[in-house]
Amino acid sequence: MEKIKMTTPLVEMDGDEMARVLWGMIKEKLILPFVDLNTEYYDLGLLNRNDTKDQVTVDAANATKKYGVGVKCATITPNKQRMVEYPQLTEMWKSPNGTIRSILDGTVFRTPICIDAIKPVVKNWKKPITIARHAYGDVYKSVDFVTDEPGVCTMTFKGESGAEKTVVVQKVNGPAVWQGAHNKQKSIRSFARSCFQYAIDTKQDLWFSAKDTIAKIYDGEFKKIFEEEYENNYKAKFQELGLTYFYTLIDDAIARTVRSEGGYIWACKNYDGDVMSDMISTAFGSLAMMTSVLVSPDGPTEYEAAHGTVTKHYYRYLKGEKTSTNPIAMIFAWAGAFKKRGELDGLQDLVAFGKKLEEASLETLNDGIMTKDLVGLVEPGFEAHAVNSEEFLNAVAERLAAKLA
Ligand code: NAP
Ligand code: MG
């Protein structure tokens, strides 16, 4: 069989621990036999980030900007414990995802992968719900303090022009706690644009929720910027594709979500997205079945699995155990990247390969062959048996080869 050709390279970002082991296995079993793989490879493994003083992460992000499509393996974000585990580290390097996200100025879209045998907790959900979380500001970049006497708290902005603006936050007659939060118009606008862009890419409706009845100015600003971007830059395309955009209160969005069939993108402010994405992923099944796509407002897109490096499995793997780590979200990351690369380059074979890779993975699961994490989640009566990662990938490879033959 002739291998599928690529033109522009994919930006490939390798990672750490069990995810890195699976990365190699996925390439060996599911990609290299079928695709004449053209990637620009960046080793984002912790030790290479350390050796390059994290320059490799910056280079990988810039390459994603340049070529437009990247695929990333999970990476360790070092903490104090990791500094002990890896004594050669010269610095507690920052989260690679944070670095990449800020260079691409992007928004993360998380989508569950659904199969018939695992029903979501909410029984009317038939299609995946994608959460887009604004990953800048609000309470995540706020300042706060406690005071212990009566008094007044004010908030002052000092402009570079010398102009000042002051408001009274509250006058209190006893101990109190305070918080100052902000967001930037530019960040909100990028968030809005990434959301509209991704809705068009995936041909799904877009909801945006906030609480502008209470935070009239703060959340009102978000609402206004989304509205402006929609009216000025995306409305025509949405109408052409038959897509809907609407703003609604967060309370209403939650109520509608519970009653919905799924199949849309829900854009959330930072905190709402943090908590709602956990609710959605748990209600749909498992973190190992969740993809994560970083979309820049100008289009560049990076695909990955939502889970981490699966450290516990890695230490068992190092002892020689064949672990049953779920590679589905990582396979879908590669598949998403191939589909996007193929669309951009007009390579129908590459788009078709991405689709078949997803189908072969889902068929394997539907045939009852799955990793341990999923076996406990299947509906009563569905016969599933647990296999290790290698056996699972072999089963996917068989089905993929048959589809491509
Ligand atoms: P994790 O790697 O996602 O794993 C947490 C637990 O979830 C695992 O121990 C495992 O449970 C289960 N799990 C996750 N993915 C699975 C899979 N594919 N198959 C089967 N089970 C899976 O999160 P973590 O242990 O909190 O973090 C480990 C490292 O990953 C950290 O160093 C963190 O910095 C990094 N991380 C990276 C990213 C990223 O690069 N995007 C994201 C998150 C975390 P059982 O042990 O019960 O089987
Ligand atoms: Mg959370």
Biggest β-sheet, characterized? 10 strands, mixed
Point out poorly predicted stretches. Answer: none
Strand ordering within the main sheet: 2-1-3-14-13-4-5-12-10-11
Q: C-alpha Rg, in Å?
A: 23 Å
Identify the CATH class of the largest domain: Alpha Beta
State the helical fraction: 40-55%
Number of domains: 3
Tell me which CATH architecture of the largest domain applies here. 3-Layer(aba) Sandwich
CATH topology of the largest domain: Isopropylmalate Dehydrogenase
Number of helices: 14
Q: What small molecules accompany the polymer chains?
A: NADP nicotinamide-adenine-dinucleotide phosphate, magnesium ion
| Basic shape | globular
CATH superfamily of the largest domain: Isopropylmalate Dehydrogenase
Structural class: alpha/beta
DSSP strand tally:
16
N-to-C order of helices and strands: EHEHHEHHEEEEEEHEHEHEHEEHHHEHEH
Strand content: 15-25%
Could you outline the blueprint of secondary structure elements for this entry?
Blueprint: E1 10-14, H1 17-31, E2 39-43, H2 46-51, H3 55-67, E3 69-72, H4 80-85, H5 96-104, E4 107-112, E5 129-133, E6 138-147, E7 151-158, E8 164-172, E9 176-182, H6 185-202, E10 205-210, H7 218-241, E11 245-249, H8 250-259, E12 264-268, H9 270-284, E13 290-295, E14 301-305, H10 311-318, H11 328-345, H12 348-366, E15 369-370, H13 372-375, E16 385-386, H14 389-404
Parallel strand pairs: 1-2, 1-3, 3-14, 5-12, 10-11, 10-12, 15-16
Antiparallel strand pairs: 4-5, 4-13, 6-9, 7-8, 13-14
Helix pairs in contact: 1-10, 1-14, 3-5, 6-7, 11-12, 12-14
Bound molecules: NADP nicotinamide-adenine-dinucleotide phosphate (NAP) and magnesium ion.
